[in-house]
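anyone else get weird line breaks when pasting these?? whatever heres mine. first is seq + tokens for prot A
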Amino acid sequence: MALELEGTLRQKLGVQSGTSARGPWAKQEFILEYPDGNFTAQACFTAWGQDKVAELDKYQVGDRIKVSFNLKSREYNGRWYNDLQIWRIAPAGQAQAAPAAAPVYDAPAPTLDDMPGDNEDDLPF
């Protein structure tokens, strides 16, 4: 499930890194403050991977950003934990590329006179 949210970058937590069986990894969490009705709310997002950490590094606390993210949950020892994993960060208000529009044809629709052959009724009944 992919979601998007615009808000203000309130805090960037430290970069965490390590090495797993699949190689090196890095992640950084950050706090996004966003409008929620008449109030503001905050959510903690995770930038997984060195490329996403580098992308987050372009933004400073106080910047308005738009994040695209996936919501994931997992169970550990009978408790459930939610993870908001981003897959895109962009400045807030930046227009996304519009999907390609269907081609427009200006030719008129064919008529019965355009059909090949003679225009007499060929039906046997």
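and prot B, same format (seq, then tokens)
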Amino acid sequence: MSDNTKVVAALLAGLAAGAALGILFAPDKGSETRDKLNDSLKDLGDALKERSAEQMDHLNDFKEKMLAMVKTKLSKNAHTVEEALEEHA
């Protein structure tokens, strides 16, 4: 896990904990508190889904770059091997 991902995860966890504690200690009725807590948790879930999707996009981009690099290197090596075989034939 990268440092940025750890920071974002810690930030979101702190946000969720702070929101939950703030709502639990608020002077609202129980049903209102539960509604606010549910809304906060839904928002947190949405934020996590969005961040996960962003990270998956970054990971897919990285994978594509690595595949292209490996294919290029394999192609160059295959060409080098073919040239070496032609010289010795």
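btw re prot B: The helical segments are 3-24, 30-88. The chain is about 90% helix and 0% strand.
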